[in-house]
Amino acid sequence: MGKKLNAVQDKVEPGKEYFLEDAVKLVREFTYTKFDETVDLAVNLGVDPKKSEQMVRGTVVLPHGMGKKVRVLVFAKGEKEKEALDAGADYVGAEDVVEKITKGWLDFDKSVATPDVMGIVGKLGKILGPRGLMPNPKLGTVTFDIARAVKEIKAGKVEYKAEKGGIVHVPIGKASFDVDKLMENAKSVIHSIIKAKPATSKGKYLKKLSISSTMGPGISIDISSLGKGV
After folding, report:
1. What is the DSSP letter of 176?
2. Does domain 72-154 have CATH number 3.40.1160.10?
C-alpha cells in the first residue's frame, strides 16, 4: 500500500488548488483498494468551536445519497411504530429496544425518536452519545414527523459538526460514483455549511477545502472557482 500511495501522491502538485471537477476526477483516479472507498470533504472554517455561538452544525440530504444501505432504528410507540415501518425503518420499538441496547445490541447506523419517548431513550445517552447514535432535536431526529425523518436518512441525509480547530468532515459518496454526482453532493454540503455560518463569525469563513478518498491523499480545492453561494 505504501508504494501505491506514494505513486498517487506524486501526481498531486504540492500547494496547488484544483477546480472541484478536477479534484473529484483525481480522487476517483487515486482509489486503489478492493473496496469501494468513501469520498470525504474536509472544510476548514474561520470559527472558534469552543465558543457556543460559533459552533457550526447541521444536516443535509445528499442529492445522490451515500451509496450504502443505512440501518435506521426508530424509538416510538403506537401509531408511530407503523408510520416508521411504512417509511422504511429497519427496527422500531421503545422499552424493549432500550433494554436490548443496554445489553450490547448496536446493529444500526442512525436513530430517530418521537419526543414522548425521549424520557426512556435519554437513559442511553452514555451508550449512544459517544457513538453519534443519539437522537437529537437539533438534527431533526427527535420529531413526531417520523416518516419524513426516516425517508431523509434513507435518501442520504448526513450530519456535520465543526471539530476542534474549526474543521468539518463530511462524507459525500463513494469513489464509484460518477464525477457529476460527487460534484453535486459536494456542492450541496458546501452550500449547507455556508448557510450555517454563525452571525458572530468574522473574517474569512471558508478558509480551506479539500477532498479525499478513504485511503487516498487530500486534494485542495480552489474555493474561488465554486462561485457565489456555490
Report:
1. T
2. no
pLDDT tens digits, 110-169: 999 999 999 999 999 999 999 999 999 988 999 999 999 999 999 999 999 999 889 999
In this structure, whether the domain defined by 15-66+157-226 belongs to CATH 3.30.190.20 is answered with yes
CB neighbour burial string for 118-136, b if at least 16 within 10 angstroms, e if fewer: eebbeebeeebeeeebbbb
C-alpha 31/C-alpha 37 separation (Å) is 7
Instruction: List, in sequence order, every residue forming a beta bridge with 42; answer none if it has no partner.
Output: 169, 210
| pLDDT in the model for residue 6 | 62
By C-alpha distance, which of 151, 169, 164 is closest to 110? 151
Domain locations in the chain as residue ranges: 15-66+157-226, 72-154
Whether the pLDDT of residue 8 is over 80: the answer is no
Establish whether domains 15-66+157-226 and 72-154 are of one fold: no
